[in-house]
Every structure is written in C-alpha cells, then in structure tokens.
Amino acid sequence: MNLKKYLPADVPAKKEKEFLKNFKKATGGSGRLMLFAGDQKVEHLNNDFFGKGIPLEDNDPEHLFKIASKANIGVFATQFGLICRYARDYKDIPYLVKLNSKTNLIPYSDKDPYSKQWLSVEDIVKFKKQSGLKILGVGYTVYLGSEYEHEMLREAANIVHQAHQNALLAVLWIYPKGNYVKDEHDGHLIAGAAGVGACLGADFIKLKVPYKKGKLDTKALKEVTTAAGRSGVLCEGGSKIDEKEFLKELYEQIHKGGSRGNGTGRNIHQRELKEAIKMANAIYDITVKGLRI
Hints:
Blueprint: H1 16-27, E1 33-37, H2 40-43, H3 62-70, E2 75-79, H4 80-86, E3 95-98, H5 121-131, E4 135-144, H6 149-165, E5 169-176, H7 187-199, E6 204-207, E7 211-212, E8 215-216, H8 218-228, E9 232-236, H9 243-255, E10 261-264, H10 266-269, H11 273-287
Parallel strand pairs: 1-2, 1-10, 2-3, 3-4, 4-5, 5-6, 6-9, 9-10
Antiparallel strand pairs: 7-8
Helix pairs in contact: 3-11, 7-8, 9-11
C-alpha cells in the first residue's frame, strides 16, 4: 500500500522517511491503526481497574504493559509518567504518549471540561532520544462545546504541527462535551468533530461512535469518516461487552462505516492476561490485517 498519501506537508523533507517508517510501523502498512488505550487511570480514576467482573491483576498498572508487550498492537497510548515507571522493562512496545488528561470528578453539568497540556512535544522528542524507546506518536484530547475549547484547539494545532516536524504521528481524541452538548453520540455532531480533527491536521482522530436505538449507525458513521478526509477515524472501544459482539461491531465500523481503526482499552485490559492478549490479537487481525468474521 502506498502510504505517501498520508504524509502531511508539514513533515520536513529530511524527516519524511522517518515519519513514513513510524506510520508503517503503527499501522502494519495498512493505513489502519489499532490503538491500545491505557490512559484511563487518570480519565476514569480506578473505576476501570478494580471492581466486579474485573480481574485483580488489572489493578496493577503493569498489567497494561504486559499486554502491550505480548499482543499485536499498533501503539500503546498512555501517560508519560507511567511509561517512565515501566518502560525500562518493556522497551519493545510501540508507544504513543498522551500529552493531556483530566479526571471525571467534576460533573460536566457543573463545569465545562478543560484538559490542559502536561508536557511539550519537545519534551517527548528529548525523552525518545535519551531512552531509545519506540515512541511513534503523541496524543491529545479536545472537548468541543466546552467554553475552553479555544484553548484546547490552539494547543492541539501546535501539538500536531510539532509532532509532524519531528516525524511523529499525531492522534487527537475529540469529544463534544459540556453544558451545550445534548447528545454526544449524535452522528452529525461527531462528523463535525471529525472535520475539526481534519482541520487540525491530525493523522488519526479518536471519536465517539454514532448509535441509533442502541445499535451502530453505519450510515451516520459514513458521514463521520467522509468528513474526516485523509485523517483516519478511530472508533472508541467503550465499556466492556461480549467479545463476539465487540468484534462484529468493529468489523462493521471498518468495512461498512469506513473507519480506519479503533482505540480500545477496557475491552482488552479488563481481562486476565491470556484472554486480554487473545482479544488484542483479534482486534489487530480485524483492524490491520483485514480479517473477515
């Protein structure tokens, strides 16, 4: 597959080969990304890692790294500090560093969300050189509809550009949230978020999934993926559900809705290690290898 169509113009000529190498590594040469999301320890605190139906081993952050090191994944997305604590023992994982995060303690009905950047792209580039780790990209969340969206949009635009200047992939999580957002799963609204991601220059955009009467709305998803243009849409994984149901919907997202990947966390790590690896491999096979089910 010719991946040059995904090469942004703000990647310097001397960095083009490195960017394409990172893009190929992350997507397995398919142009589709399997993102293993491990950023929820901030976003959802401990709710996703301890409780009924969750194996005790998931409470230990190292569970995420064990999965990412043994399963087929495109990138493992998590916070910088967590990478620093474990990466010496897991040097072969392809990492994507999440540059912002916020907790869910303050209800959106009380205060519009604002997730400010923790570290700069320059910090990550220096760390990559010093550590020798396989850092393929950076990620950042924007909450559209928040009264602070202008601040997050400005940060996102700079992060995407600086990532490309340094041959790194840029993945944006874009979620409409706040007092003015009535239905965050509305397909037309999600398509708007996809268009914003494209305007910010993101390589991939992690978005909510459009549902209609509790089921995937593939027609609406097609509007979303078309609005994203050459920026690939990653559908969020959501809460843990039956694995066959999850994989069936994933297949439809890609082959009927036109998405170019997924960002999955709970449906992988809320399982014992052996089962988590098996699930991650199945997701990778459908996403990257195009396996039919």
